[in-house]
Amino acid sequence: MRTATRLRALLLACALPAAAATAAQAPAPVEFLDSGKVVPTGLPFSEAVRAGDTLYLSGQIGIEPGTMKLVDGGLGAQTRQAMDNIRTTLEAHGFTLRDVVKCTVMLADMARWNEFNEVYRGYFSGRYPARSALGANGLALGAQVEIECIAVAGAGGR
C-alpha cells in the first residue's frame, strides 16, 4: 500500500506544476488582418485571421489586386491570379506558400478539374497541402474558382 501512496504522491508532484504552468499561459490573441494589398478595404470580412501560429485566409478569387475586377482569360488565368493573391496575403503576414497545410477549392465547373490542377500544381514543390474541392454555383463576381487556405507558421521548415 505504501508503494501505491508514494506513486500517487509522485504523480501529483509532477502533474501539478505542469498543470499550473499550462493554466498560467494566456491564450494567443486572435488578430483580424487586412494588408490592403489584395482585397479592397471596406468589405465585411478580414483577408486573414491569425490565431496563435495559424493563419486562416478568406477565400480568394482571381481579382486584380485592389479591385473587384476578375482577370481576363478564364479558369487558368483566374486560378493563377487567386494563387498569386494567396501568396501576397501570406507574405504580407509573414507566411509563405510552404506554410500552407490545407486548401479548400470551389470550382464553378468540376469538369474543369484537370485544368485547375495544371495551374495549382505549379505553386507547390512536391509538398502539397491537404485539400478539399467542391463544385459551387454562383461564386462571387461570377468567378470560376475560389480558394481558401490555412497556414501554420514554420510548417515550411524555415
What would you note in describing this structure?
By secondary structure, the protein is α+β, with helices and mostly antiparallel strands. It has one domain (28-152): RutC-like (60s Ribosomal Protein L30, Chain: A, 2-Layer Sandwich), CATH 3.30.1330. It is 32% helix and 22% strand. It is built from three helices and six strands. The chain has helices at residues 2-24, 74-92, 113-121, and strands at 30-33, 48-51, 54-57, 100-107, 130-135, 145-152. Strands 1-2-3-6-4-5 form a six-stranded mixed beta sheet, covered by helices on one side. The longest helix has 23 residues, at 2-24. The protein is globular, with a radius of gyration of 22 Å. It starts with a helix and ends in a 6-residue tail after the last strand. The relative contact order is 0.17. The model has no long low-confidence stretch (mean pLDDT 88).
Main β sheet profile: 6 strands, mixed
Q: Helical percent range? A: 25-40%
| Overall structural domain count | 1
Which strand order spans the largest sheet, edge to edge or round the barrel? 1-2-3-6-4-5
Please state the oligomeric state of the protein chains shown. Answer: single chain
User: What do the pLDDT scores average to?
Assistant: 88
Number of helices, where a helix is a run of at least 4 consecutive DSSP H or I residues: 3
| Secondary-structure element pattern, one letter each | HEEEHEHEE
- CATH architectural type: 2-Layer Sandwich
Radius of gyration: 22 Å
Shape: globular
